[in-house]
Each structure stands twice: as structure tokens, then as C-alpha cells.
TrEMBL record, chains A, B, C:
It comes from Streptomyces ochraceiscleroticus. Residues 7-144 form the Endoribonuclease L-PSP/chorismate mutase-like domain. Pfam families: YjgF_endoribonc. This is RidA family protein.
Amino acid sequence: MSRVEDKIESLGLKLPDVVPPLAAYQPAVRSGNYVFTSGQLPMVDGALPATGKVGAEVGAEQAKELAGVCALNALAAVKSVTGDLDKIVRVVKVVGFVASAPDFTGQPGVINGASELLGEILGDKGVHARSAVGVAVLPVDAPVEVEIQVEIAD
Amino acid sequence: MSRVEDKIESLGLKLPDVVPPLAAYQPAVRSGNYVFTSGQLPMVDGALPATGKVGAEVGAEQAKELAGVCALNALAAVKSVTGDLDKIVRVVKVVGFVASAPDFTGQPGVINGASELLGEILGDKGVHARSAVGVAVLPVDAPVEVEIQVEIAD
Amino acid sequence: MSRVEDKIESLGLKLPDVVPPLAAYQPAVRSGNYVFTSGQLPMVDGALPATGKVGAEVGAEQAKELAGVCALNALAAVKSVTGDLDKIVRVVKVVGFVASAPDFTGQPGVINGASELLGEILGDKGVHARSAVGVAVLPVDAPVEVEIQVEIAD
């Protein structure tokens, strides 16, 4: 098993199977030394643990946990095209979309659930640039969606 | 005429003229082996066929068609910097923004209008990673906006 | 001092200190010949000059100015990893998120505040592809957020 997957297990987590796309695209694409993942919803075993807007039906703490699930699903998507997560040189970019009640302004704290988990799993390789925004609504009423861009070794 | 443009015509479509930017930017930029397009609105001959939020003023099926128009406009933007769509190695990434009524959660189906058309036109080269999100409102009240990143040959 | 910073001063502006991230990420990351910045809020000396939605609490003209502040902060973020803004070969991509009242459709004009300033500062190197969208709400209730991707010399 790869060192990155070892680390995931040591955190008490499990790299999930890749989440099948909801539509006509792939979970991730490799181009040159980069892997671009599709936007990942916080699916667990094919279902969303919660739906609705953060700041209304979903609390900020729960949304932060769900952002971590998105990050794990993103790593599964990366593995689906690289075969091995140890090929990650670094996470370059994270974009986090938070389905937000109009007065919820804590998007950075929510997306920290993804950023911090990537840091725990990947160490210095997990430190990235990031945008976090509050959107009106997400596919299948998910509270959060995260996409990542990763640089990989040849 | 290029094979890709042949294919577009065989689908009963026409590659439009590039849509002039609404502001101080370019329809697309080439950098290295990539072309990044600006976010494309579903302009047809300089006008939007429909305006408003999907799930309210605009139906999901019409929005899906409009997402296909965005994809065609994106290919026109790519051509504006490459001169030839046959230089496309693959579509790497698609981001689709759907101006959404707060309870509309069918963004993946809408953006399929872009993804499926790219697949029909480009075959395996059209398969991409993708994010689809529901935003509050789009420029000039467009129902949908699509940007693409394409890898091209030297 | 670099030519780019000279130009910034000649416009009566000042390159700010890099804005510390609100969370577990970096202001910018270099990967290969690219720098990706995090989404930049219009922070001035650590505070937002205005908060709220554009088209409601914040006017379009003020939002355009704030988008320019975001662009300056983005250049500061680029400098934080390159050391020298003269290494910029070109701005490849700008994504602008405008926290928008549901009936505000002037996002392109707002994000022009970033695009035009990048053009004034960088000339031809500042011309970019761009997406502008209207989101529900932004971190700490900022009216606008801008991220950029820049190609740099070796």
C-alpha cells in the first residue's frame, strides 16, 4: 500500500471507491503533470449524509466534516487516473463551493475541512492555493462541493 | 475545413463567430500547451435566447440546450487563438455555472448539454473533468455560463 | 524596484503586503511555470472597506473599485512566491466572484475593476481569459473575490 494511503488509514479514515460521475464526464483527467478532478460532492457509499444550505439546514461544523469527505473523494478521483497517490508532488489548487444561506459568511471555515485534511494526509505536499465561495445551490442539494488540481510526478 | 468543424456541421450545427467579450478581457488565452477560455454565455448572433434563473423563468431542458450553445461558443473561442480546432488534444476541464432558483438542484443535467456536445464533436478528446454549481445570478441575466480548458498540440 | 512595481506606484497605487489567508492554505502556489493565487478579498490593511451584496448594500461602482483592490492583493500574493513581479510572462486567467443581489446582472462591469487594473499595470501581459459570476455570499461578507493564474518565466 502506498505511504499516502497508509497515512489515510492511520487517521482512522479509508480511501473510498471513486464516486461515479452524475453525468457525462470523468472523475478526474490527467494532462501533462497535472490531474484535474471533477467537483466532488460529499458522497458516502453513494449517498449524501446531509442536504441543504449551510447556515440553514446544515450547520457549519457538519459542513466542515463534509468538506473533508469531498477531499477524500477527490483523492480517490486522483488515484483513479494515477493508480498511486504517492505520485502526488503537491496539491496546487482547491476550489470550494459552499451552498450557503444568504447570511452565512463562514465559507473559509467550512472549506478548512478539506484543506486541513489534505495537510494531515499529505504534509507539505498538501499545502495549496484556494478559493472558497458561497453559492446558491449545489447538485442534488449537496451542502458543499470541492475540486482540486494536483501536480504529479512523471 | 478541419475534421472537428466537419463533425460540427455533420451534427447540424455551425461553429459561431467568436463572441466578443463584454469587458476588458479576451475570449481565450493560450499559455504553453493549454487554451483557457473565458466564461461563455449562450449568445446566439449577439443575443441571449433566454434569460433568468433555471428552475424559475427557464426550464431545465432549455437550459441544457443553452449549455450546448455555450460549449460551441467556447470552441469558437479556442479557434480564435489556435486557428484550427484539430489542434485539440483533449478537453481537460469544464466548469459550468447555472443561475439557479434556490430549490433547483439539477445542475449536472444542465451542464450535460455542454459535456455531451463536446463528446459528440470531439469523441474521446472531449471527455473531461467537470464542476457544476448553482450560482445566484449571471452576467446579463444569462441562465448558464461555461468555461473550458483545453490541451492542444504544439 | 521592479518595473511592474514602478508602474503600480506611477498609477498612485501601492503594492500591499500579502493578505494572510483566513484559513489553512497559502496566498499563492507556484507549480511549474504557473502561479495560482488563492481567492483574494478586497482587504485593505486587514479590513474590508465594505461588506454586503452588490446591487443591494454595495453599489456597482464601489464594487468595481474593490475588484481592483482584489487584483492588487493578487499581485502581492504572486510576489510572495516569485519575489519579483517582473517574472510575470502573462496573466492567463482571472475568475471573479461577485456577491450579488438576485437581480444584479452587472458582474462583468464589476470585475472590469480587476481586469482593467491588470491591463494598466502589466500592459499586454495583463490581458487574460476571464469568468465572472454572481454568487450568493462570500467569506466574511465580502462583496467581491478574485483569483488569478499567472504564467511566469523560469
